[in-house]
Amino acid sequence: MNNNCKMNKREFLKTATLLGVAAAGSSIVAAQPAAAGGAKPGELPRDADGNVIAGFERTKTDPNAAKGWQPFSDRKIRVGIAGYGTCQFGAAFGFQNHPNVEVVAVTDLIPDRCKALAAACRCAKTYPSCEEMLKDDRIEAVFIATDPPSHARLAVMALERGKHVASAVPAVCGSLEDAQRLFEAVRKSRLKYMMFETSCFHPDLHASRVRYEAGLLGSIIYSEGEYFHHFPTPLTGYNPKTKNVDENGWRKGLPPQWYPTHSNAYYVCVTGGSFTEVSCMGMPSIVPHLRPENNDYQNPFGSEVALFRTSEGGMSRMAVTWDIPVAEGERGRVYGQKSGAGEVNTERPPLPPGVDAGGHGGSHGYLMSDFVDAILRNRKPLVDVAQALNMTVAGIVAHQSALKGGELLKIPQYKL
Length: 416
What we know:
Helix content is about 25%, strand content about 20%. The chain is an alpha/beta fold and about 425 residues long. The strands form three sheets. A six-stranded parallel β-sheet has the order 3-2-1-4-5-6, with helices on both faces. It has a six-stranded mixed β-sheet with strand order 13-7-12-11-10-14, with helices on one face. The chain is globular, with a radius of gyration of 20 Å.
């Protein structure tokens, strides 16, 4: 069971210096997907060139990360984890290190990877599939780090079994029907659902969110985000036809705007708002697997650039590209009506002792900790189902617009 992961063949995360107060903006470069290779247990995941996958290098631990953290509960949430692919994503967010978590079961469709995930999470119990693991009544919450086409289906199944859900991105894979099913399942169950969008806890985006919530930016007039990743050959993924990992998995020919959350976060995760309509342009690709006759999606585009109207009435340009050889990285900026001047603490919240910030801009530990805290305190997680779908579904509709030559289309809205 391959996880979805963000890698970069050239360069790891570069955290941009926070823009000055007068600029009232946010900019970040984040990690990218690279060719799948798969690491041996205990080794760092590497790309096809032998380089450590960007976002997963061993970085210096911040000795002050736990400063100010206050325990308030002795309860341990019993968690099950699904997915340990090329990037070993199931273990990357540190559930196994949180003082209020016990990882009681893990699963992966590839037996060797399942065994490695169990070792990484210090967990003795394994299952051959997520479907089997969800029958375990000991499990209170699950982290779904499987391939995107299974995210919504497994999340709904977990919610119906009475389990809280954390999911890797995107929340759904190209299906508006799956989006509605997921939304209704969360609303009906009244359980916690959180999408682990890594951009949301990048330092600069977090700082912009704090300034926005403090009223220092006013309404956002213009925002933009870019998820640039060049791959001339398809990245590997789990192939249900072969029941193995190969180049004919879910990634081959994936419409760019079906993987929109890293860019769309630069508006939705700053403001908590949404996109209401979109006009999107796509350019037919010369890359063979991005030709419609060569992929199961019949997708002709390697690059798609969307112009959104926001729920505040502003404008947002969000680009996702697979076929620009010199473009790599994740970036975003926001520009508000106000200068952003004013004193406000933009530091990210403290992490529990033993939990590292981790990869992808030091976002992993913060996302996991927020999810656990939301369960313990019975509060809304940062990226709840409404935000998750407002980020994801906007991209699905954007791809529809691109297929129609940029026709302006309305976007479904999600609000709890």
